Protein: homocitrate synthase
Organism: Drechslerella dactyloides
Amino acid sequence: MSIPENSLVQPASSESTMNGTNGTDNKKDFKPLGERPPLRSPYVGVPDFLSNVSNFKIIESTLREGEQFANAFFDTAKKIEIAKALDDFGVDYIELTSPAASEQSRKDCEAICKLGLKAKTQRADIWQILTHIRCHMDDARIAVETGVDGVDVVIGTSSFLREHSHGKDMDYIHKSAIEVIEFVKSKNIEIRFSSEDSFRSDLVDLLSIYRAVDKIGVNRVGIADTVGCAGPRQVYDLVRTLRGVVHCDIETHFHNDTGCAIANAYTALEAGATHIDTSVLGIGERNGITPLGGLMARMIVADRDYVRSKYKLEKLRDLENLVAEAVEVNIPFNNYITGFCAFTHKAGIHAKAILANPSTYEIVNPADFGLTRYVHFASRLTGWNAIKSRVDQLDLTLTDAQVKDCTAKIKQLADVRSLNVDDVDSIIRQFHHNVKTGSDTPLLDSIGRNEIDADIVAKKAQSNGNGVNEDAMKCC
């Protein structure tokens, strides 16, 4: 059942009246407890001058990280369609698969660069087309020839990757990074250098390479939780430490192997990171990275005005449907924002409060995403307030006492079998007809009396005749 939208109530903020150096009020300003302003909510974050929660950029990697998803196969037409949809949503950057990966990858990269999508943006911080390459001169030469606006360079720095992947030591990494960065910079395009497997790398090695590339003028350095091993505290500590070492922007990339990708992304912004990598539905290598929709859910709670001003949130569902169809997966029922039950309320006490003020049980307003909340009233858990709202929507008139009586009968029936909206609407209409005409027409006729009887017989058989409450049929 669709419920009319109401605006979420914004939490009131209060200014402290403390003006003494020891944190106490001057005597003349003292007010009795009942007259004092409310205390600041403990759930409202304390302002931090390094935090970028209200000033971040998204590097959307569905066409790079997402192409590493097991089910993904994007032909050129599909890549262009997804790129246009990301542009329409308003992401800051689109990252593409390395043109060195294959001949078709190179052609696709060139085709997307020629679309001119960035010309549509009305913001000063124009997003750009990026490509993701190995820290290797051959890859860099191919990349800059495609027409991209920026190159994201990566190399593994952990002992695992140095020993079992590329086999290079830190001296080689330093030299090759500087060579590639200086080459890309000479082409007057953006350059980012990222370590791979940052959270399993030696901290001294990390800070040393980041300091070196920052000194020669990279636009960003990147931290990557390549195996999803980090938790928010580790993320905060590393980003905060790095923020004190480099002057450039900080990009972060979080895999979701242990379920922390969204929390880690948010924590990184709190610690001073500036850019977050995402993919639509979180698709990527293994179980993917920070999902775009999940990050939007987290960030709109942190700064609703900023997020709404940057991104066309109402486009999220269509964007996710496009990608889900392309990789042949269903959108999860509990998906952030767009899951089919994301804004569905069922329990009676929840429904009553939601009907009075949606902020009682919602921290995100579905209207911000072009969606609608629903009150699930066709169940044994329903309350009379939900049924009363449905009676009003059906343009019927019943007193509160009559609505409560009708609700009791609906709950009795819902104890016998599952009900749907049409069932409950039929019961309500028949109940209303009986009240207005004084008749005693059985309510079950309109939803299949034989089906109900069969359910009762079956349940009696299962419980040897002791498991069904005969009172469930008294409304008939």
